[in-house]
Design brief:
Blueprint (H helix, E strand, L loop, with lengths): L2 E6 L3 H12 L4 E7 L2 H11 L3 E5 L7 H9 L8 E6 L7 H7 L4 E3 L4 H12 L7 H10 L20 H11 L4 H8 L3 H15 L4 H10 L9
Helix pairs in contact: 2-3, 3-4, 6-10, 7-9, 7-10, 8-9
Length: about 220
């Protein structure tokens, strides 16, 4: 079945360009468009897309709030959000990731990267290298807790090994790098990551990295 995509951007020309790129792929179908966050919410409810390609800065309702409502508690469907941004390290990207986005992509990214991003996010993965997540969080460390807050109770549900894996995810290591660091197989690492996501109620590695920072498990700038 084709991946159902909803395009959300306040610039019609950009939506047209994205549509042309995506509709050239046999496994992707653009099911609708929206010019702002409010329209996006209506379209998500009506069309049930698999992936929402979401601009951040829009009138009426921005992409951060729309993402929060699409992916938050009580959401109407399984739609995943891939955020589009004009500038690398956009100040709103961190908020979008916290809100539930599965990753972000620059608007001027090559067509093949856009297509691949749609496929990766639709498959339930994060279209954002953990190293980039860390760079984002380090840059905007002032927006994060100081680390002196009480450790969330949910963190205590993890085993020592799972906490160790979570720290490495937040540091930007890939599964292969984590496996080498812990002297285990990549399959074992994937299992641990899966357990971390399930126990903490997180959607993907992006949210796991954000959680690690916000809980104080990993401090901005720490190695």
């Amino acid at each position: 079945m084709a991946i159902r995509v909803l395009l959300v951007d306040d610039q019609p020309l950009l939506r047209t360009g994205f549509r042309m790129i995506l509709e050239a792929e046999q496994d992707i179908a653009v099911v609708g468009e929206a010019g702002d966050g409010l329209q996006a919410l209506d379209q998500v409810r009506a069309l049930q897309p698999d992936v929402v390609l979401m601009d951040i800065r829009m009138p009426r309702m921005d992409g951060v709030e729309a993402t929060r409502q699409i992916t938050g508690p009580g959401r109407d469907g399984p739609a995943k959000v891939l955020v589009l941004t004009t500038f690398d390290l956009d100040e709103y990207v961190v908020e979008a990731l916290r809100a539930g986005a599965s990753g972000f992509l620059l608007k001027d990214a090559p067509a093949n990267e856009l297509v691949q991003a749609i496929r990766v996010v639709a498959a339930g993965e994060a279209m954002l290298a953990p190293s980039i997540t860390r760079r984002l969080l380090d840059k905007y460390a002032d927006h994060l807790p100081s680390g002196e807050e009480p450790v969330p109770d949910t963190l205590h549900t993890l085993t020592d090994r799972e906490v160790e894996v979570l720290k490495l995810v937040a540091r930007g290591l890939s599964n292969a790098e984590i496996a080498a660091d812990l002297f285990v197989s990549e399959t074992t690492v994937k299992t641990h990551v899966g357990h971390v996501l399930t126990k903490l109620g997180l959607r993907d590695r992006v949210q796991a990295a954000v959680y690690a920072y916000e809980s104080g498990l990993v401090r901005p700038g720490a190695q």
